[in-house]
């Protein structure tokens, strides 16, 4: 019924919360169009993971419109629903079932050492949900359920993926080769995009200073403003040089340009060696705006057609269920 070819599997997930940023785009999304030519890709909208971020005062919020926003953005970034599978995590029950099984193969101490959890704990010591603690186990279920060969994530998820590998190895050492050990995709190319005003910290969608972050749906004027006013380094020569320690601002802008143009940093340094900061930023703004405009045009076209987006999710859930159930039954069989 479904044309599932035997190819290596790539899995990725994004929570349907808030808007996606240029950091998300450079870190993972800009590779998706090409990845799906080589891999069989599963794009998961991680709505169960997103439940963990509404614990503050238990606010009631609905994910249904943000889920459709997300599908439209996936499509605008080049995901082809005929080649790849886009689905909502909570539509596929095997995820939460495997989550429970895997929670028996991970130690309290291991989860306590996750830096993302420790950060959340340091912000809110008294009202921290169990779900935030177990978050990486659900991620392990997502990934291992599809016999995933590689995962497309930003660098901030590295520690979680290493834990997933550990859980899979532990399970395999008892029950035989049940799980494939997943890798991070194209790890050598991975670097974090930093905040525009504070280039020593990560660009994040939840930053209090909106000038730190470029959102994929920001207006082009806003994007240009944020880039032209980004913090650059005090250097009397204003050289365009990649040097994270002494010139974190310019290095970050060079990195963005390198992701978008697919040119090496050294080639860009050479190309811009006679530019002043301002001219460099203008050129960068043109390139960023050009790319984002293309994404936005497609986004607004796709987003209008809700029936089409819902159809994609319906088809994706069916396909993911059939695919994951096969693996899930093997896992259950091994446990008996
Ligand atoms: N935790 C990931 C993030 O916040 C989202 C995610 C959920 C994910 N499940 C996943 C990423 C499985 C990769 C694979 O970015």
Description:
- With 336 residues, this protein is mostly helical.
- It folds into two domains: 9-191 and 305-335, HUPs (Rossmann fold, 3-Layer(aba) Sandwich); 210-299, Orthogonal Bundle (Tyrosyl-Transfer RNA Synthetase).
- The chain is built from 14 helices and five strands.
- The protein has helices at 22-27, 32-38, 47-50, 64-76, 94-102, 108-112, 115-123, 130-144, 158-175, 220-228, 248-261, 265-271, 277-304, 306-335, and strands at residues 9-14, 40-45, 85-88, 150-151, 183-184.
- A five-stranded parallel sheet has the order 3-2-1-4-5, sandwiched between helices.
- Strand 4 (150-151), helix 9 (158-175) and strand 5 form a beta-alpha-beta unit.
- Helix 4 crosses helix 13 (277-304), helix 10 (220-228) runs antiparallel to helix 13 and helix 11 (248-261) crosses helix 13 (277-304).
- The two termini are 30 Å apart.
- It binds tryptophan (TRP).
- Residues 11-15, 44, 46, 49, 139, 142-143, 151, 153, 157 line the site of tryptophan.
- One of its GO terms (biological process) is tryptophanyl-tRNA aminoacylation.
- InterPro entries: aa-tRNA-synth_I_CS, aa-tRNA-synth_Ic, Rossmann-like_a/b/a_fold, Trp-tRNA-ligase, Trp-tRNA_synthetase.
- Its EC number is 6.1.1.2.
Walk me through the topology.
Elements: E1 9-14, H1 22-27, H2 32-38, E2 40-45, H3 47-50, H4 64-76, E3 85-88, H5 94-102, H6 108-112, H7 115-123, H8 130-144, E4 150-151, H9 158-175, E5 183-184, H10 220-228, H11 248-261, H12 265-271, H13 277-304, H14 306-335
Parallel strand pairs: 1-2, 1-4, 2-3, 4-5
Bound molecules: tryptophan.
């Amino acid at each position: 019924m479904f044309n599932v070819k035997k190819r290596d599997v790539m899995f990725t997930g994004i929570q349907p919360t808030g808007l996606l940023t240029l950091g998300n785009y450079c870190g993972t999304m800009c590779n998706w169009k090409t990845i799906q030519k080589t891999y069989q890709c599963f794009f998961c909208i991680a709505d169960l993971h997103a439940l963990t971020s509404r614990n503050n005062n238990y606010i009631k919020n609905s994910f249904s419109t943000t889920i459709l926003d997300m599908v439209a953005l996936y499509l605008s970034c080049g995901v082809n629903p005929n080649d790849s599978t886009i689905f909502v995590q909570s539509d596929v029950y095997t995820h939460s079932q495997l989550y429970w099984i895997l929670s028996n193969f991970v130690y309290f101490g291991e989860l306590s050492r996750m830096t993302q959890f420790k950060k959340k704990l340091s912000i809110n010591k008294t009202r921290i949900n169990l779900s935030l603690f177990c978050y990486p186990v659900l991620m392990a279920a997502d990934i291992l359920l599809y016999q995933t060969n590689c995962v497309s994530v930003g660098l901030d998820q590295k520690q979680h993926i290493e834990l997933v590998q550990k859980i899979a190895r532990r399970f395999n050492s008892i029950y035989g080769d049940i799980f494939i050990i997943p890798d991070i995709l194209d790890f050598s190319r991975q670097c974090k995009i930093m905040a525009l005003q504070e280039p020593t910290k990560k660009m994040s969608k939840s930053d209090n200073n909106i000038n730190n972050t470029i959102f994929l749906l920001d207006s082009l004027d806003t994007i240009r403003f944020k880039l032209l006013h980004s913090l650059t380094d005090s250097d009397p020569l204003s050289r365009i040089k990649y040097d994270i320690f002494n010139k974190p601002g310019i290095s970050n802008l060079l990195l963005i340009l390198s992701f978008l143009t697919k040119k090496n940093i050294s080639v860009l340094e050479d190309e811009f060696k006679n530019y002043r900061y301002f001219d460099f930023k203008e050129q960068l703004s043109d390139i960023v705006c050009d790319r984002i405009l293309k994404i936005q045009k497609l986004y607004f076209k796709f987003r209008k057609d809700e029936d089409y987006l819902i159809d994609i999710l319906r088809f994706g859930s069916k396909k993911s269920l059939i695919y994951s159930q096969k693996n899930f039954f093997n896992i259950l069989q091994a446990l008996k």
